[in-house]
Structure formats: C-alpha cells, structure tokens
Design a protein that fits this description.
homotrimer, 333 residues, alpha/beta, Rossmann fold, 5-stranded parallel sheet
Chain lengths: 333, 333, 333
C-alpha cells in the first residue's frame, strides 16, 4: 500500500521528514509544528505576501502528470516566495514524447541539481517510487496522488478548521460526498484523527463510501441530514467524474437531489458551522452557489492557507535535508 | 456596452485608476502622465533594460484565453523588470479541464495573493466582469478584448507617434484596413482624439468600417489613396481573419490589390510619413515587406514602446492601489 | 552548408564569439577556455549550485521548435543561475497561430530587449539564418539543429571525458550507433578532433554512417566488437526514429541484437572504459539498462556538466558582446 510505504520512506535515518508523501505516520507534534509554521506564513488578501529566503539557491521542479492549474500555481508561488528557482514541466505533453522513462527524467533533473520534486499523478504509487530512488539530498512532495493521498490539502484543511474553530477536540467534522475517489478525504481525515478531532463522520451513499477499515475511529452515515446533524464543520468533496469508471458514472442531477449541499439542508448542521470544499467545485452538483459563496463558506480561506502550508512544507523538508547534509559532512571529516 | 462600463469600473472611489480596461474616459492629463512615465522606462535595443522594484513582492498572473506569444511576453518582461513574481496560465488548455468557472479561477488566484490579472479574451466583456468582482486591492489589465478594446496598444501607438512627430495637434493620422474587427483602431483612435490629434481619418472598405458613431470627430474614407493623402502617420491594421464569420471571409489577394500598403501607394502620404502596424503582420495582405521593413516603418519601435507602456501601467495601478490601501488603513485606525 | 556559414557568422568583426552556432572553426584554445570556465561552474548533486550575476538584467528567450524538456530546462537553469530573466516560448503550439514569420517573431522579441535566443529546430539552417539577421548586440545559441549541430552537447561530452580520463591525446574514443541522423556525433566528434584526441572511431552499420568526408581523421568501423576494441570511451547514440524517413525505419529488435551496447559486448572495450549517452535513452535498443545504470556509465555526469557548459557559453558570449558594445561606444565618442 502506497501510504504505508510512504510513511517510512518519507523519513531519513534520523527520523526527520525529508519527503512529504502522506500524512500517515506523522505525529500530533509534527502536524502541529507544520501548522504553526504555516500560520506564520499566512497573509490574507490585501496584505503583502510573506517572503523569506529559506529556499534561496534551491531549485524546485513541478512535475504534473495530471492537469492542475490551481495546485501548480500554489506550489509555484510558495517556492518563489521562499526564493527558489522554479521550473514547470507539463508531463502530459512534453515528457514522454521521446519515450524516456519517468525515472530517467527524474535522474536527469536531479543531475541538473533540482532539490525538490513536486509531483502530481492520476495513478497511485509514483511519489513513493520516485522518493525511493532519488539521492539522499533530494526531496519529493506529493501534490496529489490518484485517490490515495494529498497531504498538503489535508494540512490546509486542518489549518483552516483550527483558525475558525480552535481546539479540534471539541469539534464534529463531517466529510460528505464522493469519499471513495477522494484523496482529500483520506488525507484530511487522517490529519483530523491524529490531531484528536472530537467526532469525525464520513457521509456518503454506500457506493461512494471509503473501504471498510479506512480512517478507523470515524463514524459512517448514509444520509446527508443525519450525517451533518449538529456538525461544526461540513466538508463537501468534489465529484471525481474523471476517476470513475464508465459503469460508475454518476447521474449528476440525481446526486444533487440527495447529496448536494444547499442552504436548506445545511440547516441540519450547527448555526455557526463552516463549509469547506477542496475545489474546483462542481456548482449545482455537490454544492449550491448560495452555500459556496455564502456566509458559512471558508473555501477561499482554504486556498490562502494552501500557499502558506506549502511554504511550511518546503522550508521544513529543505531545512531537514540541510541538517542531514551537515551531519554527513561532519561524519566525513 | 463594455467600454462605457469599463470607464467607470476602472476607477476607485477617489477616481484613481485601479484597473486598465479601456482608454474611454481617461483625460488628456492622465494619458499624458502614463506616456511620460512610459518614456522614462524606454530603452532601445542594445541598452540595458530599465528596471525598478515598484512591483517587488507583487504577483502578476497572465490569463490568456486567446493565444498571443508577443503580448504575453511583453507583459511578462514588463512585470519581471519591475521585480514582480509572474505566473502564466494558458487558459485555453489548462483552465476548464475540470469545469471550474472563470470567476472561481479568479477568486482562487486572488486567495493566493495575486495582485494583478492581465487578461486577454476573444469574447467581449470578461475584463470588466472580472474587475467588477475582485477585491478592492486587486487590479485587472485588459491585454486585448475581442474587437472592443486594447488599451496598452493604444498607449504604445500614441507614444510612438509622439516620439517621432511631436505635438499631435498638427498631425494627420490615417488608420487603414480592417477597422470593424479591430480593437487597436478603437483604442488608438480614442487616445488620439483625447490627446487632440489634428486630423484623424478612418480608411477602409465600407464593409470593414467602424459602426456609425464610433470615434466621433474622425473623418471616414473609402479609398486608400484619398484616405492617406498628405498623412503624417499611416497605421495599417492586421486583417483579423480569425474574427470574421464564414460569410465575411476576405479574399486576401483582392484585399491586397485595393488596400495593401505598398511603397507605390505610400507616396500619397507625406514624404516623411511614418508607417505603423500592431503586429503580427500578414505580409503581402495588408502591407508589403518593402514598406514593413523600409525607412518609413516604426513597427519595431512600437514593440519596444510596448514593454515601457506596460511597465508604466503596472506601476501606476499598483501605486494607486497602494495609496488606497494606506488611506483605508488610516480610516480604520 | 550550415556549419561552414555558422563558423564565420558566429564571430564579431574582432573575431570574438558572439553566437554559438557550431563547434566548427573553434580553436583548441577557445574550446579549452570554454571547458575551463564550465569546470569552474560544475557542482555535483548535493552541493549548492554555482551562481553568479553575469547575466543580471539580461533576458534569455528559449525558442524550441522541437520538443525537448531536458535541454530547455538545462538552459533555463543555466540562465537563471546567472541572474537572467528567462522567457519560454513553445514554438510548436504558440508561434505560428497567427501566421507570423519566424524572423518577425525574432525582431519582435529583440525589440523587447531580448539579449540571447536559445533555439532548437528539427530543420537545418534556422540558427545561422537568425544569427545573420539579429542586431549586433544580440546572440543566438544553437540548442540542437536537425542532424547538423548541437554544440553545447559537444562541449559537455568532452568536458566529461576530460574529467574522467584527463589528456585526450592518449585516448581512444568510439562513437557508436545511428551516426547519420546525429547532431551529437558531428559536434562531439568535431570537438574531439580539434582537441587532438588520440584515436576517434565512428562505429555503425553502413546505412547509418556519416557522409564520406565528415570528421576527417576518424576511422570507420562496421562491427561493434571491432569498433570499440580497447576503447577508453564508448559513446552510444540515441536511435533517432523521429528523423528517419518511412523507408529508413529501423527494426529496433534487430538493431539491438547487432548494435545494442550490453555488459557482454562492452567487454571488448578497456576494463576502465566509460560509457556515455546524450539522452534520452531508448533502453533495450541502443543500450541495455545494466550498462546505462552500471559502473562504467557517466551519463548523469554528462547532464550535470550540461548546465555548467551552458553557463560558460552564456556568460562568454554575453561578456564578448559587452566588450564589443564598450568598444563601439568608445569609437562613437
């Protein structure tokens, strides 16, 4: 399983995080430290973005095998605001024209002194595979891996909840919709459980529920009204049409009638509930525009936190690798 | 009408320019100030480009829904030479893969602390629509909007004329060719009229003339020889095949015979006339190569001025927004 | 012939290198100087990349008419690590949408104060053609021209050999495989001959051999075993399927049986022979994975040297142009 492998793979011999492949295996303290650092980088629209030179002289390569304008730009801005050089490689069009293997591409870029690979892929396994093969001073950050893992999304979600609702121990959080195809549900759910969320609810039709033992500790619900009842946080998920096989294809209108989050059925949650969505939204399918753009929505705040979280992740892993390099140099003297 | 809406929309409550959507409504003093600042940034090929840090820490996003290598690079270099971070989004390929609305894309980028959106679109209305929705500290620059408006092109054209010919009050300027599909004719014509050009002539076959009341004050001509007779400036326009409907499609050879600007028919203009073209040129259709590359041509100078004008526009709107922010902060204390 | 034209074209009136179009005509001293400077810029993976500000304020435009992620990124990183602004133009998709000529695109970018054009094309002649037309302060670097020339690859290859094997005068170097379609064979072979390599061997089936008088001084061999016998360096070439006409198409399996470099037939070379490949590799066609990834391989070192060589080339031509500009200024006083 990718995530289990990833949990070990992402640490160096001294246990420091050198990759970010998954949130599986990260301790409460580690998550809290990343969130605190991200909070330090948060600036709201209208403020001058936070900048430092923690990645000065470093090179970050964005390798996206699956299209994503928003996540690519979020990582690109995070890296540039830390002083890094950034190169973008659109792996859909430019990569395999000449039939080179992915690993040859990686080794080639590593030989050009790329320090961090930010990778997105529609298939599971690539980030861990690459992390297992790069040199000890090179890092891999998972920017979205099939339905399996999306660790920076998990971090930005819990950062947003913490900012709005404070201590997680007292909160009811409902994750709603297409859970089975969602890397966000898995990563955000894992972060919430590790951080000791009071009550985590997985809410979906049976056909779109997570596999049986996933996110142990969460309760499971097959009715929207019951699942979000009294919740502090309602997180709707994107219907992942693009990850469904032909026979799984949903009837969007039917899904909306039963599972679309509207102002009407949001009344089942607490009056001060916040509504989250990882974007991009299918308006009128999993969420209505009056909810998406309404007073409960914190969807834009999630995006703002995304840049801050990516700055925190990049600066943490680069600093950890630097520490390792210094120790290795000391041993070599 | 987009341009009228734009004229109001592009100012903040204190009347400062915070977007550049259109040249409609800009005063003679405002245009002159932008041109003077642009002149300050002009460097000719062989000189070191002008640089300053007026956009340091700012983020500029190029959103091109219509392909344009030259204009995208011109804005990208203008922003980089002012110290900005620049992200390029090819909205043709990458944007709507997941069905997100344009406004969701804009709000997402705004949440990542993008300060300026540079937008080009083949349809009218998008720049004003976006300008009406972004936060008060965010700016939109129209980099070409259907047949409607191309304000930075208008500015670079009048800057070029001013450099070569001085006071506009004594000049005859002829705009020639496919006026009906041309955003350049509309923006450059507007700038010339506001700045008090002596004599503005619109020269085209009847089927390609501007709508009846456009650019009031200009004379209209349906013969090339008569239209450019004694002109100081002859500005030819690109035949916009891509904006013509099927039944409007021109016979390029027939157009060339009657309307192509050649060394021969350029003799109708003044002996020291300058020839302009917004590019990219259809050589052998609206202009011959001996004119395009000949002694009257100032076409490359227009391109050089384009970068300077975009630097002036970006630094002006960012400074205006900064002023507004400071005032808002003062009121809040 | 492109290369002959290029050899003269690439120098200014005082004989300084202002473009790099070809390695034809470069003296032993000139090559050695470029290699020494490149060596100064070499950093191995794990070290902080070399940086200086030799291109600060300069603009480098990457114009790739043929796809190449690795070479484009190598030039992009070289330019950025020297402090340049870099713009990427994908000329396959974005350039000719509006039917502009290549020279109009070049003149447009030159007018925006681009200093260096890095160009790749599948057809011969474009770099020299552009070099013949740009202004005296503008440079062209050939980043791969059809089957004709790839000068920075030639430089990085001889740099790699020099690092591993020292004095070229005592070495046997075998270039193996599809020579006829290879710009690498031509450029690397030329550099080796100019630098006085002891013994240069061209090894290929008759149908893929170089034209009769190319690389005079090299011996020719039509058997792999005989051609690499006792060689210090075995350089395999990529099978250029994409440059073969339909009737030339190779049977990859048949080629592999007779010409694929495997651990078995590598035994014909010296026990301490190094194996090189310009990449991207067709594993299992011209080279096996056990050789490509084995102890003789220096393929990743070639890639690392590529960035250093491109930094040396860019900083040399920009400094030469600067010298010329200063002299021209002095004469003008």
């Amino acid at each position: 399983m990718t995530t289990d492998t990833g949990a070990e793979l992402q640490r160096d011999h001294a246990g420091r995080l050198r990759h970010l492949l998954t949130l599986e295996g990260l301790s409460r303290d580690e998550l809290t430290h990343l969130l605190d650092l991200a909070q330090f980088y948060v600036r709201v629209p209208g403020e001058v973005p936070a900048r430092d030179q923690g990645l000065w002289g470093r090179t970050v390569a964005n390798l996206f095998f699956e299209p994503s304008t928003r996540t690519r730009v979020s990582f690109e801005l995070a890296a540039k605001r830390l002083g890094a050089d950034v190169v973008n490689l659109d792996m859909q069009s430019s990569s395999r024209v000449k039939g080179e293997t992915v690993l040859d591409t990686i080794y080639t870029l590593q030989a050009m002194l790329v320090d961090v690979f930010v990778m997105r892929d529609a298939e599971p396994g690539l980030p861990a595979y690459v992390a297992a093969h790069v040199a000890p001073h090179v890092s891999v950050v998972n920017a979205g891996e099939a339905h399996v893992s999306h660790p920076t999304q998990g971090l930005l979600d819990v950062l947003t909840i913490r900012q709005r609702k404070g201590d997680l121990g007292n909160l009811s959080v409902a994750i709603v919709g297409d859970l089975s195809h969602s890397r966000v549900a898995r990563s955000t759910g894992r972060a919430l459980l590790t951080l000791g969320v009071g009550d985590l609810r997985l809410v979906s039709p049976p056909s779109l529920m997570l596999e049986p033992h996933a996110l142990a500790g969460a309760s499971r619900h097959h009715s929207l009204a019951e699942g979000i009842k009294g919740a502090d946080v309602v997180m709707t998920l994107r219907i992942q049409h693009e990850r469904m096989s032909a026979e799984d294809k949903l009837d969007a209108a039917a899904f909306y009638r039963e599972w679309g989050l509207s102002a009407e059925n949001l009344k089942h949650a607490r009056p001060d509930a916040i509504v989250m969505h990882p974007g991009p939204m299918n308006r009128g399918v999993e969420i209505t525009s009056d909810v998406a753009d309404g007073p409960h929505s914190v969807i834009r705040q999630q995006v703002t936190n995304g840049v801050a979280v990516r700055m925190a992740v990049l600066s943490t892993i680069v600093r950890n690798v630097q520490e390792r390099n210094v120790e290795a140099g000391r041993r070599a003297v």
